[in-house]
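Dear all,

This email documents one entry for the complex benchmark we are building for the journal club exercise. For each entry we list the sequence lines for every component of the assembly. Then comes the predicted three-dimensional structure of the complex as a token string, followed by one or two observations. Please use this as the template for your own entries, and keep the labels exactly as they appear.
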Amino acid sequence: QKEVEQDPGPLSVPEGAIVSLNCTYSNSAFQYFMWYRQYSRKGPELLMYTYSSGNKEDGRFTAQVDKSSKYISLFIRDSQPSDSATYLCASDRGSTLGRLYFGRGTQLTVWP
Amino acid sequence: DTGVSQDPRHKITKRGQNVTFRCDPISEHNRLYWYRQTLGQGPEFLTYFQNEAQLEKSRLLSDRFSAERPKGSFSTLEIQRTEQGDSAMYLCASSPGRAAETQYFGPGTRLLVL
């Protein structure tokens, strides 16, 4: 079992829809939770991160972590065609160990 | 642009050849990471440095792989005797070192082994 599981999709939605992307993780030691966006043939771009449980909002993006169920979510409001990309969730233990554990990514297409 | 840079962006090589990739982190970031990403998968951790010290290596990093960060600035990743299974995107990331969560990635080096 991978440390972080993510449904690869693909997910296809019309412009303006609310998108929900989800991951689960297995390691109770994880403390930091990140979402990256990756366009085709590019490096991952950090969207936002949260520490422990709770919500964090940044513009049209909201990240949510529920440590009791080991569930990570990213919501995109008013989705745009430019949001079409692969979204990767990642976690780490917040210690000096440093490595990130990634899900396999969800491919999102927002059509006009 | 002061982001993470990687060179080359693409590399095609024949099986058995050696290849070397370079990563220049964001200035003043003392942590530098290498990951490998294959098609349809998320990045997988290979190794990371704090300044010039290599602090952790994944078991994915076989004896054919070596990474260095000689002066705590840029880093190189060398693959000796390449195999077709080494074909992947090799990603470099850096962080300021205060916490692991803010890792910023470069554009990657796409390797194809024929």
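Observations: Chain A has no helices and eleven strands. The two ends of chain A are 37 Å apart (CA to CA).
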